[in-house]
Specification:
alpha/beta, TIM Barrel, Immunoglobulin-like, 8-stranded parallel beta sheet, 6-stranded antiparallel beta sheet, globular
Length: 381
Amino acid sequence: MAVLAQKPPMGWNSWNTFGAHINEQLIMEMADTMVAEGYKEAGYEYVIIDDCWSLKERVDGKLVADPELFPHGMKALADYIHGKGLKFGMYSCAGTKTCAGYPGSYGHEAEDAKQFAQWDVDYLKYDFCYFPVCADAKNAYLTMAMALRSSGKDILFAACNWGKYDPSGWMRSRGAHTYRSTGDIFDVPKSYKDIFKNQVENIEGNAPDCYNDMDMLITGMHGSGNVGLNGCTDQQYLQHFAMWSFLGSPLIMGADLRKIDKTNKDILLNKGLIAINQDEEYRPAFLVDNMGDKRYILAKLLSGNRIALAFFNLEYESDYLNTMEISFCDLGIHSGTGIKMKFTNAVTGESIGVYQDAFSTQVLPDECKIIVAEMILPEKE
């Protein structure tokens, strides 16, 4: 079986904006937009249909796509998406029903996996609603993982049990390529900040073929759509995207890419942040400092003898000094080694300067600073 998630998956999912209001034409247009507007080139490759795509009842024991919404069927839609050089994702649920009340896969794992393979599906999001109280969740996810493995098609398995039963401790061993570690995200600052605080110390297990999924991105939604509430500012959307990128979460967009504004499109396409998320060593970030659950400093070892640093200020407003400082000792670089660090702003690409032993910076409320530091070794005498 191929390694299906060497790096955190990137793509787009229908749920955040459209919920149940999906159809064949919408999905095709989103695939077209991903290619035409540079998302595919940036690394986004999965086009994922979430809940509400099927009929309300099985037909002869099989899941059937709603013919009014998807008149040409799922195989034809998969062929269209593959023709764009993209990959096709679908949705099911470990329970007897999906979260919206459509047929779930509990007790039908083998036949559903074969059906997805026949439709040429590349990615399966597997939710956790209507799960029988007497059933074994760990075995349920293992059962679908094994069904997918025996389907004859390589299908990335994106488990989504909302962090129940601490999936970081068992989802990898049960065959998941990604696992949802939290409840659903909503388009307000408190939602993404709470997810970050909940998961910032739960990321060091991230590694190829099993990544902590902190839920889909809300960047660019501005309060619209299925999970839209009051929305966020552009600065908050940048902070959110930087958090997900730095922590190694899958980057699954949720906005309407046909209508997104230029500022947030540029955030989603930011080469520096995506490069940190997709770095070829695929190492997890680690927490350097947590200042009262309001200010965080993280680091992440990158390929090429580089280190990424992240400074996040989660305050909405503050009368306090917003200075954040890191000692290079916390990065394993001790005074006396002679090693200096050349700092570059990962978001803008601008040079910041060369530093030794320590670095401090001002980070205002709702802001972040993401830095890529290249080690400069002392010259040999």
